[in-house]
Each structure stands twice: as C-alpha cells, then as structure tokens.
Amino acid sequence: MVTNRRDSEYFVNHEDKAKTLTQAFAELQQARMEYEFENNRNINKNKSHKNKNKIYDVYYTGSIKTKKNKAINQDKLSFKEWFRYRINKFRYDKNQIKKLALVTTGAFAVCIAVISTNSIFAEYQKEEEIKKKIATNVFETNHSSLNLEKIIIENVGITKSKTIVEDEERPIEFEIKKEDDPTLPKGEEVTSQEGVQGKKLVDCIKSYEDDTYIEETILDEEVAEEPVPQIIKVGTSEFLAYYKVHLGDKMYVTSNVSLKEKAEDTAENLCIILASLDVDLQELNEDETWCKVKYGNYEGYLKTECLTSEAITPGIGELNRKQKLYETLDANMDLTKPSGLTLDDFKKVLSGNPSDILGIIENNAEAFYNAEQKYKVNGIFLASIAIHESAWGTSYIAKDKHNLFGFGAYDRSPYESANTFEDYSNGIDTVAKYLAINYLNKAGTQIAEDLTATGTYFNEPTIAGVNTRYCTDKEWCTKIFKYMDYLYNRL
Q1: What are phi and psi of 50, to 5 degrees?
Q2: What is the pTM of this model?
Q3: How high is the pLDDT of residue 412?
Q4: Angle separating helix axes 379-390 and 476-489, nearest 10 degrees
Q5: pLDDT exceeds 70 at position 152
Q6: Domain at 245-319: CATH code
Q7: Fewer Cβ in 10 A, N or C end of the chain?
C-alpha cells in the first residue's frame, strides 16, 4: 500500500513568491522613495523642536554663559541664579544625550540605506544601460539566450515529498555453499542444488525532490520466504582426476585379472577378466587403492592399479571393442546375430591373406558385409564358407562361374551342376538369402520387410545345425569354425 503526501499548499505559496526582475526593481524604487520622504519629515520635525527648546550653552570649565553671553562665576551666584543654572544644565544634558542617540541611530540607518540604495541603483543603472545598449544595437542578438525567470522558478520551485510504502516485496539473495565430494575428480565443481531467492516485505519512507528519489528510511522488515542456498560439490578424488573419468564410466583392465568378492587380496575370485576388456566403475574406497566395478552380471572389487582409461591409454577403447567381438566367437554361436564388425573390420580381416593369391576374397569384403546387414546372417560365417568351398577363390567353379560356395553342386557332377552367377557379389547375395530362408530361421520368421523364412532345412542357427543338411561332410562345421577363428583373430 502506497500513500503519497505532497504539501500542495506549500508549493502554491512558494510559487507565488517568485518575482520577475522588473517587479523586484519596481518594489525597490518604491521603498527608496518612501524612505526619503520619511527621512525629510523627521529632519523638519527635529528643527522645529530645537527652536522651541533653546537652552544655555554649557561648558565644563566651571563657568556659564548667560543669554547676554557673559561669563558668571558659580561662587558669586545667588541661590536663585544657582538653582536656575542647575535646572538649565540638567535640561541641557538630557537633551544632549537624546540628540547624541538620535544622531548615532540616524547615521547608522543612513549608512545602511546608502549601501543598499547604491547596490539597488547600481543594478538598476546596469539594467538601464543594458536597455540603452540594446536600443542602440550595441550587442549582437543571442538566439540561445537564457530564460532567467524560468531558471529562477525551476530552482526555487523544488518541492520535497515523502512516500510511505508498506509491504513492498523485495528479494533476499541466496547463500552459495561449497562442499567437498570424493566421488568427483579433484577440482571439478558440480551444482547439486540450485539456489532460490527468498522474499521479504519492507515498510519504509521514501524521500523525493520533485520526481527524483533521494533516500529511504526502513521502518520494518518481515521475511515472507526463506532463500534456498546453492550447493556446489567440489571434487577431491585424485584418481578420477588423473584418469579423467567419473563414477559410472567405463575403464579397462591392463592385463588378465581376477574379480574379487571383497576388497582384499585373499578374497574369493568371482571370475577372470581378460586384458583390454571394460568394466563399469562404481565406487572407490577411502584411500583409492581398491574400487568396486561391474563386469557383465558380476559385481566385485579390483585394485585401481589394474585399470586404465582412454585418456591415459589412447586406442584402448578400440582394442576393447575388437576383444569383445572375439569373445562372441563360439562354435555354438547364433549365426542369425550380426557379427558386429564394421565395413572397415571386414576389409581388414579379409585383406592381405597370403592364401588369397587372386584377391577374390579381399575384393568382395563389402559384399560379405552387405549380406550380413540385409539378411541378418553372420558375414564372417559366409566368408569362411566361401574360403573353404573355393580354396580362397582358386577352384574352377569359383573362377569360371563366380560361385565361391559350390552352390547347387552335387557330388556326382559338382562342376556341371554348380550354379553360375554374373559376378561374385551376386553369388554371395544369393547364398546368404538361401541360408537365411531355409537353414538359419524357423518357418515364419520375418527376415526383412518382404522376406519370410520357410525353415525347410532348419535345425538350429549354429554351424553344426547348418551342417546337418547342408553338407554330407560331418567335419564341415569344424573346418568352417577354424576359418572363422582365424578371421576374428585378425581383428
């Protein structure tokens, strides 16, 4: 609630007192004329009084003068003459004191009047001289001349006022608190709680000059809402700072290590973690010599000296990826799951093999990769069949018919019965599709948007399951896995 208290009556009266210079000079002239008139009247009055009260001149030499100006010795005066002399002397002294006081007062008043009059008439004469000069065009016209009357009014007419303000809402700044946190890298700061300003209600008196705020006086304050402090966590962990990791990040083991049930050397082993494999960092003990990690379905403890990070060991992440790909290799692995190898991985493992003297396998690395993406068949499995059946692309069927798989061939007439393809990529695509529809998926399995499995020769999606009906050689599955292991190791 705001209440304005302005003294309007004072403002009006103050404005009425503002005079122009012309009005001021007129009033001064009138005052001078009245003063001279009164002064002349007093002088005439004093003259008349003096004529009526003539007394004897008295000298303080012990003698007096009569009206005939004769000196009289006081010792020879009769009592009557002496009594007259004393009466006249008393009257004379009294009148002299009055005259002296009157003269002194008059002289003082005249001095003040002369000074004031001279000052007033000096200003008046200056104004008259300026008017004459203006009339005779002595001065040049000043187009930016000051409005003296306006300046006087603006400076003299300042109004002061006070405003009472009740329950004015004002913010209360929140406090910033910093707390040490051993779960963060040393020196790192994280805001765990955002600060929120509080509110207070203030009663005060505000002072103004015209519309300009000058100052205020606080009468009362009441907290409406307490501020919420901002809390900043400051990391203290040197281990996390050195390896540039946080809790929850991946770290990598530098060698084959045993995952312990407790943070003790003598604790029971949970499993073995191979070099370059990753673990999820969960906790650090107080002296940061042991840490709790998660590896697959296991949770246990490792010494921190066994761990590293990508920041400290560049390339460890890529090595870890390839190591994990190799870990998926198994004789009973599901061949309907993509290998996870990138196109660059396919080119790497299928290139530079001494047995690939014609470069046929190397040149078709992209075709094996595309078949895996299209039909969800492990591409390394397809490449291993092609290598085994075509002897690295050197068989007659491979060279003459672009058929790396001996697809369609029968034991009694393999060359004549084998299918012929336009190029190697066409043959690779055809065999991948055939295996996906008939050998690797159950009937009705959706392989692609427009491709559904029949499951005609399905046993299980493994090398041994395909071997059951695909080839009469019972050792075929072992031979294929041997090539797969070779290629995976080339990662």
Answers
A1: -65, -40
A2: 0.56
A3: 82
A4: 120
A5: no
A6: 2.30.30.40
A7: N
